[in-house]
Amino acid sequence: MIGKSVVKKLSAAFVVAGCAFVAVVALGATVFYALALVLPPLGAAAATAGLFALIAIVVAIVFLGAAGGRRQEEPVEPEGLGARAYALFRERPILGTVAALAGGFIVLRNPALATILAAAFTEKPSGRRGRY
Questions:
Q1: Which ranges of the chain have pLDDT less than 50?
Q2: Contact call for residues 81 and 99 (beta carbons, < 8 A)
Q3: Pick from 28, 59, 68, 86: CA 20 to 30 A from residue 75's CA?
Q4: Which residues, other chains included, contact 114 with Cβ-Cβ below 8 Å and sequence gap of 6+?
Q5: Taking the alpha carbons of 104, 106, 107, 108 in that order, is the dihedral positive or negative?
Q6: In this structure, which long-range contacts are made by residues 47-51, counting pairs with CB atoms below 8 Å and at least 24 apart in sequence?
Q7: Full-model pTM
Q8: Cα(92)–Cα(89) distance, rounded to whole angstroms?
């Protein structure tokens, strides 16, 4: 079943995104406290923010530079919600990770959405839309 594999891949992506978020926050705290030993707290905060902004700019340039050099054919529009989510993670991993974190936060705040999303991902498309 394609639905189960998509759900497994999305679950793995949520776990990876959560772990990456925790790792970045911990790294930021470590850098801040290391700089706070030699700088005042305001300077350490500014230096930490500047460092992470520089890293974000370098990563964006690397990803945009790698993607801008190639010509791609028109992508085929994926069918279904699960296929679209998988295509988003494949084509734009950073945006997909942010969307996964936001979606996870929303689902944690409203458990009824988890049921709706599970139904949407496991729904089987029917061959016919109606009788003529």
A1: 132
A2: no
A3: 59
A4: 107
A5: positive
A6: none
A7: 0.44
A8: 5
